[in-house]
Each structure stands twice: as structure tokens, then as C-alpha cells.
Amino acid sequence: MGWPDPRGGPGEEQRSPPARLSGVGRRRPTSGSGGLSRLTERWVAPPVAILSRLVGRLPLPAARGLGAGLGQAAYWLAGRRRRVVLANLDLALGSSVGPRRRRALARANFRHLGITAAECCRLFFGRPGALLDRVRVEGLEHLKAALAEGRGVFCLTAHFGNWELLAAAHALAGLPLSVVVRPLDNPHLEGLLARGRQRSGLRLIPKRRAVVSVGAALARGECVGILLDQNAGRDGVFVPFFGHLASTSRSLAVLALKTQAPVVPVFVRRLPGGEHLVTLDPALPLVVTGDLERDVVVNTACFTETIERHVRAQPEQWFWVHRRWKTRPA
Asked: Quick check: 171 and 200 in contact, CB under 8 A?
């Protein structure tokens, strides 16, 4: 479901700009120009593909062990990113968690991300059956009830647990799924990642073409996954996340209000022993007052509170390396 960009704290509220889709339909700046940049982008992909396929062929316990070890090494070697994680944990959890516990959570978070990366190598480039066999699903009846309304369904989720496995697990229920993604800056790596994701039948919707493609998927009565836990910059709406205002994409609220498609929270978390549990909650009631700006803020706050609830239950499994509170209200 889209590896997030880790580039990207709290303050006072600001007046919301007009209701529009944050980042949707816009062209992102290129990562660089010139022959050297393009050559570097081209030559990065083959080694990544070779290493990913090698890890993907390892027995699953060995791959997970390797991922955990690499994640532990990254905690000590990636000092800048470690400081981001510790600062985020301090901001989000405050005095309820002491420094020693925060450091333990940060180490567990790096190990979790390393295991997730190794599992994705198996998912994208190896034989995913052994991984998918260890996925359990609870609450599927909520999704089926929402689909029965005939307007399609938005699946609200986040970069939590193994979110890529969550996207692939739709095949277990036999339900078509499209996911709105932010393409990687490197087009060669993006092509490699996209092919891996599409092995399960997942449909990818680039953010810049999201409006039309999302509407078409909903019209077919399908599910559309949206990850709503990243900093949305100045285009976002500021809503509380762990007690601090965070810029959040307004896209899901705007689309849900315009289409009246139900929003079903769907999250996955890793269990002890290597299993994964997918949890589907009942559809969230949309607040519709006729004041679009207010409704976007209220519903986005509800979506974000749902994400926070799941993260609080397993804090080490969220993407703390992302600067979620980077953009501050004016």
C-alpha cells in the first residue's frame, strides 16, 4: 500500500483552505534533472531487484530473522532517522512513557520495519503462499455489509503492521481492491515495486489520477484503499493525532462526502509467532451537515482518531520514521 516518504509538530489551528484533494491531480516535482541523476536512478534498480529476489527465496523464518537483524543495525547506523523516531514517540506518548521505554519502542520499531521489508521481498519476488497462509481475518462481515449498499467502499488504513501484506490479502476474501499510491521518485524502482504489488491482482491508482480512477472503481462496486497517516503539507487539514495537530489529507473525507460510499477501517498487525491479523471495523458514520468545510474537518478527525486507536494498541508497528507533525499550522 505504498511505501511512504519519511521526509515529511504541533501548533494552533488554522482556517481550512477550500475543500480539495490534497496532492491529488498534481504533478510532483522531479527528484532531480540531468544525466547523472537519471543514470543513478537506472543503476539502483537492478541490485535492489537481485537482493530482493534472493531474500524472497529464503525460508520465511530465515528472511524474518535477517530483516530483524538489519532493522536492529539500522537503529544504530541511521542516527538521523533514529532521532526522528525518538522525537515522534516523545511527542506522541509524552510523560506516559519514560526514556528507557521510548528507546525500547524505537528499537522494536526498527526491527518491525526490517521484518516487514523481508516479508515484502517474499510477497513480491518469492512464493507468497506461506506468508498469506498465516493471515487471519476478523470482521469481514462489516465489509460485506458495506458493499451490499451498492456504492463501493473506501478502506481506511495506515502504514501500520505489514501494510503491503494487507493489500495483498484482499485475494483471500476474493474481493477486488484498488489502492491510491504515491509513486516513488525513482521510476525504475517504482516499476519494480508496482509489478510486485500487482502479483496479487491489486490495482494501483496513482495520486495524480486518483479522482477519475477512484470514481470508476466505486461505480463497479469495488473497494478502494486509502492510507491516511502521512503529513499532507499546506494542502492538508489540521486535526488531532496523539493530542497534537497534524496536517492530514482531506481526500478521503471529500470523496466519501461526494460519493456517499461507506468508509470501513481495515488494519493488520503482526502477532507473536509470525501470524498476521487483519481486523475490519464497522463502517464509520459520516457527518453530513451541508457545510462541506466543516464536514471535511470533522470526518477527517474521526478517520485520524481511528488510526490512532489502532496505533496505540501496537505502537511499535507504526511508521514512526515518518515526520508526521512536520507541517505546522500557520
From this structure: yes
pTM: predicted TM-score of the whole model, two decimal places: 0.86
Could you give the number of structural domains in the chain?
1
Residue 218 lies in a domain: yes
| Enclosing domain of residue 188 | 35-317
Dihedral, 252, 176, 307, 86 alpha carbons, nearest 10? -110
DSSP string for 52-72: HHHHHTS-HHHHHHHHHHHHH
Residue linked to cell 471529500: 254
pLDDT for the residue numbered 200: 76
Q: Is residue 4 part of a domain?
A: no
**Residues 213-226: tens digit of each pLDDT:** 999 999 999 999 99
Mean pLDDT, the chain, integer:
87
Within 8 A by CB and 6+ apart from 38, the residues are none
Neighbours of 74 (CB within 10 A): 17
Rounded CA separation 302/319 (Å): 20
Choose the weakest-confidence range: 15-24, 119-128, 134-143, 308-317.
Answer: 15-24
